[in-house]
Amino acid sequence: VQLVESGGGLVQTGESLRVSCAAPGFPFEYYSMGWFRQVPGKVREAVADFSNNDRRVFYADSVRGRFTLASYIAKNTVVLQMINLKPEDTGIYYCAASTSAIVVTTSAFYEHWGQGTQVTVSS
Q1: What does the alpha-carbon distance between residue 48 and residue 94 come to, in Å, rounded to a whole number?
Q2: Average pLDDT over every residue of 48-76
Q3: Alpha carbon distances (Å) from 96 to 36, 57, 122
Q4: Phi, psi for 73 (deg, rounded to 5)
Q5: Beta bridge partners of residue 20, listed in sequence order
Q6: In what order do the strands lie in the sheet containing 4-6?
Q7: Taken in order 19, 15, 84, 62, is the CA torsion positive or negative?
Q8: How far is the C-alpha of 8 from the C-alpha of 17, rounded, in Å?
Q9: How far is the C-alpha of 26 from the C-alpha of 99, rounded, in Å?
Q10: Burial class (CB in 10 A: 0-12, 13-18, 19+), 83
Q11: Complete DSSP assignment for 60-114
Q12: Does the structure show a pLDDT above 80 at 1?
């Protein structure tokens, strides 16, 4: 299973960015997908997580209202649209897949991970 993230970069505070995760040939519709963020010295945290089974979405309090997760099963792609970015959103963003039928926000429940893409928000 290969998850490939793309779309990270450097933006200024208040700008927008979209990161994508492609999973060619992956049985996307049977998995829950998640976006996690990690900064040096901190635990990898769940940002947005989605269950293709019950279509529920979880957003971390820090990003709710600014980030939107969209899943495109036909394209085997999950996208995280981020608006009104803040310096504290800076980190490496990882896409992950879990066989859980429900939304999970704990990284230990995710079996497959992408390589990560860097998002940097300057003040």
Answers
A1: 11
A2: 91
A3: 8, 14, 26
A4: -60, -40
A5: 6, 79
A6: 4-6, 17-22, 77-82, 67-72
A7: positive
A8: 7
A9: 12
A10: middle
A11: -TTTBTTEEEEEEGGGTEEEEEE-S--GGG-EEEEEEEE--SS----GGG--EE-
A12: no
Question: Using an 8 Å Cβ cutoff, are 56 and 44 in contact?
Answer: no
- 13-59 pLDDT, tens per residue? 999 999 999 988 878 778 899 999 999 899 999 999 998 888 889 99
Residue 87, C-beta contacts closer than 8 angstroms, at least 6 positions apart = 13, 121, 122, 123
Tokens, residue 98: 């879990």
Structure tokens at 61: 């309090």
Length reported for the chain? 123
Q: Per-residue pLDDT tens for 76-95?
A: 899 999 999 999 999 999 99
